[in-house]
């Protein structure tokens, strides 16, 4: 079976919901379902988060980041962190754990390096999307961060399956862009129960067509992706050139500000949030 046929085969199974997740992903999906219950109390949520060491560490780190810790008072309690962040941000943290768990079973060192690089890219896009949503496009910042966290989930799923197909990801090809992002990614996002608003925004990013200044969730996600200092390892090398072009984009924001001034003023916030996601 050649590379294109393999991509198509994985995409077909993903589209039918025939996905194979590691056991730890299935456990975290149950936590996600529990948080979706409107009757879930903060104490119950904190107890569930505490039971997941990685999620606990990331929740406290995010709560102490410049994006959420306005007072500068550092906290160490998971319950206080959950209270500070709120359930919507907590759900984004759960999504982050699920995305990273998809690559947890990879043993091949080359694929593991790609997964680590892909998460580094994702963390930067998420931090940028949160700030851009809040200060530029004026849309819901938590939704923007959540969308950014899951925007490469198809890539993580493909990496988790690639060991069964030696050489599948030796080269960056257009086959991945066509069948990975669009078909595999859509199947995984639906299986994870991602809301339609977020799914449509991610699909809009796959199709490209940057609108500046950004006004919608899709516009915001695309700009954050273009501005991210770390390029996805699953994209062709020329993506680095697109990053350089995006870095030169500037436009007016509000009264007297520009995109560049917003990014400069928010540099610490972006770096802090991205760093917390990488914990």
Task: Please render the helix and strand layout as text.
Layout: H1 3-15, H2 23-36, H3 42-50, H4 53-63, H5 78-85, H6 87-101, H7 109-137, H8 141-150, H9 153-161, H10 174-191, H11 196-207, H12 217-227, H13 239-247, E1 252-253, E2 257-258, H14 259-265, H15 267-277
Antiparallel strand pairs: 1-2
Helix pairs in contact: 1-10, 2-6, 3-5, 4-5, 4-6, 6-8, 7-8, 7-9, 7-12, 7-15, 8-11, 8-12, 9-10, 11-12, 14-15
Number of strands: 2
Secondary-structure arrangement, i.e. CATH architecture of the largest domain: Orthogonal Bundle
Tally of individual helices = 15
CATH class of the largest domain: Mainly Alpha
Q: Which secondary-structure class do the elements indicate?
A: mainly alpha
User: What is the makeup of the main sheet?
Assistant: 2 strands, antiparallel
Q: Estimate the helix proportion, in percent.
A: 55-70%
Give me the side-by-side strand order of the main sheet.
1-2
Termini separation: 38 Å
CATH topology of the largest domain: Hypothetical protein af1432
Q: Averaging pLDDT over every residue, what do you get?
A: 87
Could you list the spans in which at least 5 consecutive residues all have pLDDT below 50?
none
Beta-strand content: under 5%
Order of helices and strands: HHHHHHHHHHHHHEEHH
Coarse shape:
globular
Domain unit count: 2
Radius of gyration: 18 Å
